[in-house]
Amino acid sequence: MRTPQSATRTYGPKSAVKMFDNPTTYPLQSTPTHPPCLSRKHTLAGFFIFNTRLRRFPLPASQMANPNQPAAKNDVPPALPLLDPRNDLVFKLLFGHAPHLLTDLINAVRPNEPPITVQQVMNPRIDAADISGKFIVLDILAKAADGELLNIEMQMSRREKWSARSLYYLAKVMANQLNSGAKYASLKPVIGIHLLGYVLFPEYQQGLWHFLMCDQTSPEVKLGSELQLVIVELPKLAASPVPTGTAAAPAGLAVAQRLSPALQAWITYFQHWNEEGIMNQIDYAPVQQAMAELHALSADQETRAMAERRELALIAERTELEAAEARGEARGEARGEARGEARGRAEGEAYGKAEAMREILQAFIDDGMSEAQARAMLRMPAH
Question: What pTM, to 2 d.p., does this model score?
Answer without folding.
Answer: 0.62
